[in-house]
Design brief:
The protein is mainly α. Helix content is 51%, strand content 3%. It has helices spanning 25-33, 42-55, 60-65, 67-73, 79-83, 87-94, 103-121, 126-131, 153-164, 172-181, 195-202; strands at residues 8-10, 16-18. A hairpin with a 5-residue loop joins strand 1 (8-10) and strand 2. The two termini are 30 Å apart. 34% of the residues are buried. Residues 1-5 have low confidence and may be disordered.
Length: 203
């Protein structure tokens, strides 16, 4: 296991951050302003769900660099709009070089919008469902990246429930990445400059 110092690096401002945060210019703002900060609105969660699903098998930086194109292609990730996508929209998306042109993932994004609407019509929100799987109790701050699991019992349970509700392309690993991105867990390392601020927002 590597020591904690090898998992934290100083950013451009001289303050320590999770090592991945400075591996590409686009990562710093994402790390500081988004990753781990709680997302509780359905549209925001749906966007993250879609992006994490598209990321499966790819580097996250690929998705981050295509994010604006994804937002344009998927109507700003408006759930009702995407749920109404039909054959012509799928054909349009498959021809859009600005996004990841994977038929199964495109179909999943549309199916997941429809599943989110079914949740809403049943009296439950996507936010309520996802946040019900946030781990309870205090979790010790991870000190190294070796301590971060690819999946957890909660992410496996979340993946099963999402599948039961009609969601696609969200296995336990993708579900845990979603939990990290949306603040259900705080996986900023101990000593990271934004960890305490993220934790305060989650309380």
């Amino acid at each position: 296991m590597s020591d904690a110092s090898s998992s934290l690096v100083d950013g451009p401002d001289g303050r320590p951050r999770c090592r991945w945060a400075i591996s590409a210019p686009e990562y710093i703002d994402y790390h500081d302003d988004e990753w781990g900060r709680p997302v509780r609105d359905d549209q925001g969660l749906y966007e993250k769900l879609c992006l994490e699903s598209f990321q499966s098998g790819l580097a996250w930086i690929t998705i981050l660099r295509k994010r604006d194109a994804f937002r344009t292609a998927f109507a700003g990730f408006d759930i009702d709009c995407v749920a109404a996508f039909g054959h012509r929209d799928v054909k349009r998306l498959l021809a859009d070089a600005g996004i990841v042109r994977n038929r199964a993932k495109i179909d999943a994004a549309i199916a997941n919008a429809r599943a989110a609407i079914e949740l809403r019509e049943s009296g439950e929100s996507l936010s309520e469902l996802l946040w019900s799987f946030a781990p309870s109790g205090d979790r010790p701050a991870p000190r190294t990246f070796d301590e971060l699991p690819p999946t957890t019992d909660e992410s496996a349970a979340l993946a099963r429930e999402l599948k039961r509700r009609g969601f696609r392309f969200v296995g336990p690993t993708t579900a845990y990445a979603l939990m990290q991105a949306c603040g259900l867990v705080n996986d900023h390392l101990a000593g990271c400059v934004v960890r305490d601020a993220v934790e305060a927002e989650r309380l």
